[in-house]
Amino acid sequence: MAAQKLSETELQQALNSLPGWQIKEGKLYKEYKFKDFSTALGWMVTVGVHAEKMGHHPEWFNVYNTVRVNLVTHDIGNAISNLDVELAKKMEENYK
Amino acid sequence: MAAQKLSETELQQALNSLPGWQIKEGKLYKEYKFKDFSTALGWMVTVGVHAEKMGHHPEWFNVYNTVRVNLVTHDIGNAISNLDVELAKKMEENYK
Q1: Residues near A56 by Cβ (< 8 Å), separated by ≥ 6?
Q2: How many CB atoms lie within 10 A of CB B93?
Q3: Chain A contact present for B66, CB below 8 A
Q4: CA pair distance B13, B29, nearest whole angstrom
């Protein structure tokens, strides 16, 4: 799927459907908290497989039970695209 | 295993046996490069299982084929310990 930069309106609509997500330094950002390290790592694997399938990958930081995610699309000049929103939705779906 | 802060000498000896590792902002730091995202993620899983077994976890950032690792021991006042060196060695062993 080709990446398309979102308009301000599309971005606002997307944020309304993504609890806890915000725009931070031009990227789609969320801090996830898990029960423990293994749970965090397991979630990263599940989400990572989806990311690989999409050909669209996150920037993410993990320490113990915390994962901080930044999503942005390099191919369209570091803007937020439909692919970032799609990946964020996959992250939400797999977060319990 | 209990964490023990390393002396300057012990730290230097450890660094000599850990190619590409350095001290950065008081932490043991290395940037790993992999063939692709899947290889990077697979390595994180392997290393993560070791970390969990040790009860000692990395701070790490991933984007695509890059993983940046910071190791420090919170329990002993954010100093570098034998556990950090042990985890760094596991990372090296599993890096091809």
Answers
A1: A3, A73, A83, A84, A86, A87
A2: 11
A3: no
A4: 15
Q: What is the pLDDT of residue B96?
A: 83
Tell me which DSSP letter residue A35 carries: S
User: Helix (H, G, I), strand (E, B), or coil: what is residue B26?
Assistant: coil
ipTM of the complex: 0.95
- Residue B93: name the closest of B49, B27, B35, B36 by CA: B49
d(CA A73, CA B79): 37
CB contact under 8 A, B62 and A63: no
What pLDDT, on a 0 to 100 scale, did the predictor assign at position B2? Answer: 86
Domains and CATH numbers, chain B: 26-93 (3.30.1360.20)
